[in-house]
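REQUEST ID: PR-0412
SUBMITTED BY: lab tech R.K.
PRIORITY: routine
TASK: structure prediction, single protein chain
INPUT:
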Amino acid sequence: MKSHVTGTPVLGELRHALTALIIGNPLLSPQEQLLANQQVHECEDAGRLALWLANMMTASGKCQRTSSSLTD
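STATUS: complete
OUTPUT:
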């Protein structure tokens, strides 16, 4: 079951999750957000998208822990 927009259901889910982390992310400039979003939607490699998602989640978690420790 493929669609021309997402490629496969797995790719679509990974793209959706990554886009949610990229758009509005304070770690990325607006230009970086646009470039990352474009790259996410052009990538056809589920393994690469999954790795990118894991890395983004790790980076976001580190940023949140750092900012919360500064306010404590």
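NOTES: Residues 41 and 63 are 25 Å apart (CA to CA).
REVIEWED BY: pending
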